Each structure stands twice: as structure tokens, then as C-alpha cells.
Amino acid sequence: MSTFSLSLQQKDNPFFTGQSSSLFSTGVARTVLGFHQQIDAYKPTPLVALDHLAKELGIGKILVKDESYRFDLNAFKVLGGSYAIARCVCQKQGITLDEFSFDSLKGQEPVTFATATDGNHGRGVAWAAQQLGQKAVVYMPKGAAKERVDNIIKLGAECIVTDLNYDDAVRLACKNADDNGWLMVQDTAWEGYTEIPAWIMQGYMTMASEACDQLEALGITQPTHTILQAGVGALAGGAMGYLANRYGADTFTGIVAEPDKADCIYQSGCHPDGAAVNVTGDLDTIMAGLACGEPNPMGWEILKSCSRHFLSVEDKVAALGMRILGNPLPGDDVVISGESGAIGIGLLYAIARHPDAARIMESLKLDEHSVVLLFNTEGDTDPVNYRDVVWEGKYAV
Ligand SMILES: Cc1ncc(COP(=O)(O)O)c(C=O)c1O
């Protein structure tokens, strides 16, 4: 096998304390899972063992939680939006989540939920609003893929494509929500806006808790490593928070991976005091779901205390991961992975084939005993770009 060198910037986390948060306890995760299980179409997504690839890369095990199967929505995001919207509805009706049922909503005046999204979160919010008989208005950044817009409109939501980047689209959605009396359901937090984003992060725990239960069913006590991709860091924070509570943050190596064009978590890890750092500009990475420049403060808090390493990588890493997952070694299953879903596997492969592989593997404690848990957070949510990359070889190494 040839070696090749993709850009992989690594920052070892000097702020690690191992301190987890009760927001992401195993008890809360059970409540959230109980809610998701009430949804008719609920079933756990597969955990795929890529044993042949693991052997090829000199790693013990590689397990990919495949969220392309989540509620037929092709991404994990709905887990957060659905839980947050249900909690908002409960709050409005003055009932607890235990008392909540889909039937209890019949005949009630619907609420309008607003959000901004690269696609997946908005699709999740539109789907949840439709399931719960509510309304949704969704704002998207410039350059939003047509398929992603269409998928939101199909779910009955109003969808507005702006000429702004993601973070500015969030601000616009927020202002319009204020002006119109809509309820903002955003997957990031800011001062004075934390309750709904916390519910969204808790919603994501279902993905992590299913994965851990599936590992146990395979006779694996726990992962030694996890690689979590970050946009604002809500997903990574929710999943890392859960893993830290379930196993202890010092029992595994938590790695956060981001595109180098939108690496706000990595940059925050490089800040001398560990303050959250915003990245500005067009954020024009192919990993649309990770094209966010402003860390979610709750996510950053968890990632700062529980992650071991932050990695900032070029777009080619994700493209490589898409091709590997879609064209596996004989005996491994095919996983259809979109740009933001594939960064973890692309990173593992890019490390193993790097001219400096031995040093990087050692620094991340990766070896033939490692059990690496990855999350394919989306399938081919932009099918045109999927084919450009996987068929036509765009972003080749
Ligand atoms: C497919 C996919 N993966 C990962 C993420 C990252 O989530 P977060 O912004 O919470 O870091 C997103 C966000 O939209 C996404 O769509």
C-alpha cells in the first residue's frame, strides 16, 4: 500500500479534567430513549463491524454506528429536534414527558417552530413538527443543496434559503422568530438560550446509548476510542457526555474531528485559556453539516473536559471516507456515508497511510488492541455530490 499525506492538524487537549455533566447521565439517556421508542417508526440503527478494514489498518476493531437508517431520514439529527419539540409541547401544555402522548396533541392549536440548518437538523425539525401536528419554518445558509431543501419542503415546512453563512442564518431565524412569535428550536446555544439546545443534545444520546448497548451485545465491554465529528459540537458534546458518564472519560480516548475550514472546536482547544473561539468567513467545506464557525457553549464545555484530542482536517479526508465506506473490503458491509458522516473513517485511513503513521498512531494510542467507535451521522443527503465524490473521484487523495 502506498503512503500519502493529507493535512491532519492535531491538538492534544491541555484542558482535559474528565469531569462529566449530569445533563448527559445514563438516567436521562434512558428517558430520552423511552420517548424515541414511542415513535411508531423507531428502531435502533445498525452498528456495523468493519473487521477486515480494521485488520488492514492494524486496529483491533472498527465499529460504525450507521445513522443513515434513522427513521428513513438519512441522518441522526431528528433525534435532537424531536425530543426538544416534544419537551416544548409538554411545557406549553403543563404536562410531564411521562404524560405526553401523540394523541394528547389532537385538537390543540399548533405552535410554529423556527430553526436554521445546513439541512439535516431542519429536516428533523420539519419531520418532528409534522409528526406532532405542529408547524415549522426553516432557514438555510447560501449554497444549500437542492435535494436538502426539497426534503424539508416535502415535510410541509416553509423553507427559506438565505445568502448568509450558517451562523448568520441562525441569527436571522432567531430575529424572525422573535418578530413573529415562533419558538426557536436551534441546535446551538447562546447566552440566555440553553434549555432547548440542552434537550437537543440530550436527544442525541439515544444514538450513543444504542451504540454502547450494541457493543455489549457483541461482547465488547466498551470502546477504547471514539471519533466524533463537530459542527457546533452539540452532537459530539451529547455523545461524549454520555460516554463519559457511562464509562468514565479517562477510560477511553475521545477525539473530535472537524473540517479545517470550520474548525471552531479545534481552535478553541488551541486557545491559551480554552475560551470558545469563533471561526468566520464562508466556511465552505464539503462537510456541510460541520460548516459551523461558533461553538455551542454547552458542547464546548463537555468537549473541553472530556476529549483527549482535537483534529482539523482537509475536505479530502471526508471524501476518502465516503469512498471507503461505500466500497468496503470483501466481507465488510457497505455503508452509504455523506460528507459529514465519513470524516471519522477517512481520518483513520489517512492516519494509517500517512508517512508519519507510527508517530500519529502512538500519539492517539491507536494499535491492534483498540476498539474504535465511529458515527456515520448521515447517508447521501446530497446525492449529486455523493456521486461526484464516489463515482467521479472528486477530492481525490
Ligand atoms: C450529518 C451531520 N453530522 C454531524 C453534525 C454536527 O453536529 P453539531 O453541529 O452538533 O456539531 C451535523 C450537524 O448538522 C450533521 O448534519
From TrEMBL:
The keyword Transmembrane does not apply. Keywords: Lyase, Pyridoxal phosphate. InterPro entries: DiNH2opropionate_NH3_lyase, DiNH2propionate_NH3-lyase_sub, TrpB-like_PALP, TrpB-like_PALP_sf. The keyword Lyase applies. Its EC number is 4.3.1.15. GO terms for molecular function: diaminopropionate ammonia-lyase activity. Residues 41-326 form the Tryptophan synthase beta chain-like PALP domain. Gene3D superfamilies: 3.40.50.1100. Pfam families: PALP. It comes from the Bacteria. This is Diaminopropionate ammonia-lyase. The gene is dpaL.
